[in-house]
Design a protein that fits this description.
Elements (H helix, E strand, L loop, with lengths): L3 H40 L4 H11 L4 H10 L27 E7 L6 H20 L5 H9 L4 E6 L2 H13 L4 E6 L9 E9 L1 H8 L3 E2 L2
Helix pairs in contact: 1-2, 6-7
GO cellular component, one term: cytosol
EC number: 3.1.1.29
Family: Belongs to the PTH2 family.
């Protein structure tokens, strides 16, 4: 015959098991939410190591506050990210980093600074979408994001040169994105304004290594 004491012990044991299960579920949910948040923030271009540091210390604060802290935090120079002094004649091949995005600007079109900035942004965003669709580049894209999403902007002297560079990139099977402007402001319609490549030093140097840094 089951006594009241035995019944209470069984109920307590069952309650403890339920408590542990609930805690495990909550921990798993928090872990999933944290992973999702970290991925969202690194996709925005923040360093993964910095994101993890701030998210771990933030607790249950809104995402907007974490982003604000990321924007106002200066992690300092990394030994893995070179500081490039622009001497006016430097070639980007002198800058040794891992995977990078190289953006080529057609300076022969004599675009304003603002126009160049917008065309470089078009090239970078367009290439990013191309890379995301390439499953064979998934690991490279992840490491690139984690290492600061490094980009280098170089110049092509004219349309003929940027076309030649683009053709060489195709020959070497390097992921790329070309920008042809609609011609609503400063340049003629369909002007070849910018070009972006993604790859390692070894892959990119034969194609863009001799182009000068944009200044």
């Amino acid at each position: 015959m089951e006594t009241s004491g035995t019944t209470n012990i069984a109920k307590n044991a069952e309650s403890n098991i339920q408590t542990v299960e609930n805690k495990n579920k909550q921990d798993q949910q928090r872990s999933t939410e944290k992973e999702k948040l970290v991925q969202e923030l690194t996709d925005m271009g923040f360093s993964k190591s910095l994101v993890l540091q701030i998210v771990d210390n933030a607790g249950d604060v809104p995402k907007a506050l974490i982003v604000e802290q990321l924007l106002t935090t200066n992690p300092g120079p990394s030994e893995n990210i070179p500081v490039v002094e622009d001497d006016g004649d430097q070639l980007w091949e002198d800058v040794t980093v891992a995977n990078k995005m190289v953006i080529v600007i057609n300076t022969g079109l004599k675009m304003s600074v603002g126009k160049i900035a917008s065309q470089a942004a078009h090239a970078a965003l367009g290439l990013y979408e191309v890379i995301k669709e390439r499953t064979d580049l998934s690991s490279d894209l992840i490491s690139w994001n984690e290492q600061g999403s490094r980009k280098i902007v170089v110049e092509a002297n004219n349309t003929n040169q940027i076309i030649k560079v683009c053709s060489e990139g195709k020959i070497h099977n390097i992921p790329f994105f070309c920008v042809h402007d609609a011609g609503l402001t400063e340049v003629e319609p369909n002007s070849f304004t910018a070009l972006a490549f993604f790859g390692s030093d070894q892959e990119l140097k034969p194609v863009t290594g001799k182009l000068r840094l944009l200044k």
